[in-house]
Design a protein that fits this description.
The structure holds 2 protein chains of 2 kinds.
Chain A (H helix, E strand, L loop, with lengths): L2 H30 L2 E2 L2 E2 L2 H41 L3 H11 L7 H11 L5 H8 L14 H25 L3 H9 L4 H30 L2 H6 L7 H12 L2 H30 L1
Antiparallel strand pairs in A: 1-2
Chain B lengths: L1 H6 L13 H26 L1 E3 L9 E2 L2 H6 L5 H33 L5 H13 L3 H13 L6 H25 L3 H9 L4 H30 L2 H7 L6 H10 L3 H25 L2 H6 L3
Antiparallel strand pairs in B: 1-2
The chains are: A mainly alpha, B mainly alpha.
Chain lengths: ~270, ~280
Amino acid sequence: MPQRLLALLFVLPALAVIVLLFMVPLGASLIGAFESGEGYGIANFIKVFELYRWDVLFTVMVVLLSTLLIGFFSTAIAGYLTLGENPRAVAVLRWLYRWPMFVPFIVVGQVLRTFLAKNGLMNNIFIELGLMTPISATSFLDWRGIVIAFVWKQVPFVALLVAGAMASIDRGTIEAARNLGASRLRILVEIVVPQIATTLMVGLVLSFVTMMSVLSVPLMINAQSPTMLTADIAFRINSYGDYGVANALGFVSLLITAGAAWIYLRHSVKERA
Amino acid sequence: MSILNSVSPARSGRFGIDLWWVPRGILLGALAFAIFGPLANLLIWTVTEKWYFPHALPLEYGFSNWAKVFAPRGNALESLINSVIVATVTVIVALALAIPSGYALARLKLPLRSLILLAFLVPQAFPELPVFVNVARMFYELRLNGTIPGVVLVHVTHGLVYAVWIATAAFAAIDRDLEQAARSIGASAPRAFMDVTLPLAAPGLMASAIFVFLESLDEFTGSYFVGAPDVNLMPLLLYSAGAGGNYQIASITALLLLIPSIAFMAIVERFLRADVLARVGH
């Protein structure tokens, strides 16, 4: 048997699973978005606009803010791991920052729901320390809770990617800038970050897509309106069996992601080719 | 580096103490609080008997909720067993699919190779939720909804992307000459694969198996649409216990999901080099 045919046979079963259980349902979701009781049209999208336009805005704002914060914190952590001059502090940080990476989202939701509540452990500690009075304690279980959960979970992942990229850049330019008296912050911003910008962007886009499809965190942390589109989709299906509007909501979240995904795919194809 | 240190004015205080430890300590302490505060809170909840406002810490501690979770007829134990079965079968199916694909992608001449690689990347570039919703609808017609095979298929699709990537990387990292040497002394192609290539790729494949196992154990969205309420799994139990206000059961379930993940973090570097790990997603 020619090798090419054999290779194709090896890949085919896995490819079939991806096509049948991912791409076909994805296509069904795109078509289903335009399907309503009266046939094909934009009826579902009108409903989405009437009922969920604030949730669309809420989702975009929450995910964008989380992405920016993830970018900031992961660059700061990776930057200190690369440029830090105190070996002990670097070792402590290296040991510390990775912990949340392997914590599943559903566990993140449960952990932060009890931690960030009005009378959760965080406020309790602040009150005991005298940093806050019991009356001024507020619950963080709204958009802030979602942002905190996303940032908490995703920063280690992006920081790991970025730190790997920073470790492989040429130390010569960094040492040269140091000898000329540049501050470490300036070296980070002007020399290191431009060289790892692609890796940072890939990490942020992956995080963006992940955050757009997490259902457990908004369900557990933000059981109110406005909420994330994922929670709206689940509600539409469970309460009304309304696949049309659910798919239209899915279509909107696909559109939001499409921009990000396009950047990512273009980059990774270029790199693999 | 040493030159810079010696001219740094705050390097040593009057008593030889490095004053930089003040900002460093504050920042590292704040980070430790942000990471371990929530996790400590989880641990406290698992042994809480009574805890209400305005008490900063529980009033009574005990293990009565652990007994409830592991009661022989409790639905918690059922969901634990279901989760392990689903995850094990998912690993077997995913690896059976990923090993030949990974080998072909890494070693063989494959027509349309970049297009096929792209196909394995697509699930990473789109939100999964609309897909799961329509898979559930499709499975409903095929009578796969609410069955263990249905849940396994969803988890395989989710885990396959990582399994194929890691398997491809594992095979690509093996020296081609070793296989050629086995062939030249008369081993058949399948024999060379089984005796030379597969054992050498084993650590990478092992990492991919553990990864797929954990992804399946922790998967919520697909299980929620395809499995619930007939197939009871741990993430679903966590969700429903938490939604019902039973934070003790929810926290114990969360801890049971957390332990294997943290253990994986501790051993992952033994199986996967950091540069391979960093390439996942590229």
